[in-house]
Amino acid sequence: MKYWYVIYTIHNQEFRAEANLKKQGFQLYLPKYIGTRKHARKVDKILKPLFPRYLFIKLDLSIDNISKINYTFGVNKLVTLGTEPNILPDFIVDNLKAQEDKNGNLDSIINSIYKMGENVKFSNGVLQGNNAVFMGKTEKQRVFVLLDILGRKLNIAVPPMSLQPL
Fold first, then answer.
1. Which residues pair with 54 in a beta bridge?
2. Model-level pTM greater than 0.85?
3. DSSP three-state, residue 38
4. Residues 6 or more apart from 23 whose CB is under 8 A from it?
5. Per residue in 79-110, pLDDT tens?
6. DSSP annotation of 42
7. Contact of 70 with 77, CB cutoff 8 Å
8. Which of 22, 97, 144, 152 has the fewest CB atoms within 10 Å around its CB?
9. Sheet containing 143-149: order of strands
């Protein structure tokens, strides 16, 4: 039976790993969005992976050869728990695919999370339950929030998935 697994790629080689694995006939999913790159006083729009250094592959371990994957250019290794590859639940990939736009990008997740000044609440982690104010987004799949803690206002960058609207 086929399940989704996670591949850890070489730094900035997600697209190369995806292309090389597709040539070998594997079913892959690389969630991506349109981001910006600053270079020589220019700002270019480029396709970026939503999860840097990671992509998803659907395999049947009784048929597919893992060593073939690990020796593919651009791939560092298949993510394992001990010696066994870690299964990724189907609903995670399905939810990501459902949020793609017509071009297969996840810009809606990155660009339309919250509005500036919107009140948010931490939904997990050590700050769970604390309220904050959404201040903007960063280039590294993080968002800035203004947190009022111990009488001080702190501007911190956090993953957008750790927040929920109030």
1. 8
2. no
3. strand
4. none
5. 988 888 989 999 889 988 888 888 888 776 65
6. E
7. yes
8. 152
9. 152-158, 143-149, 131-137, 119-122, 163-165
- Number of separate domains in the chain: 2
C-beta of residue 163 within 8 angstroms of C-beta of residue 143:
yes
In the predicted model, residues of the chain with pLDDT beneath 70 are 108-113, 139-141, 150-151
Q: How high is the pLDDT of residue 110?
A: 59
Same domain, 119 and 82: no
Go through 136-159 and write b for each residue having 16 or more CB atoms within 10 A of its CB, e for each that does not. Answer: ebeeebebbbebeeeeeeeeeebe
165 in Cβ contact with 118 (< 8 Å): yes
**Could you give the 3-state DSSP secondary structure of residue 152?**
strand
Same domain, 17 and 95: yes
Per-residue tokens: 149: 């803690």
Q: From CA 43, how far away is CA 50, in angstroms rounded? A: 19
| Domain with 61 in it | 3-110
Return d(Cα 57, Cα 30) in angstroms, integer.
9
Q: How many CA atoms lie within 13 A of 100 on its CB side?
A: 16
Do residues 50 and 109 touch, judged by C-beta distance below 8 A? yes
CATH number at residue 48: 3.30.70.940
**Residue 153: what residue type?**
K
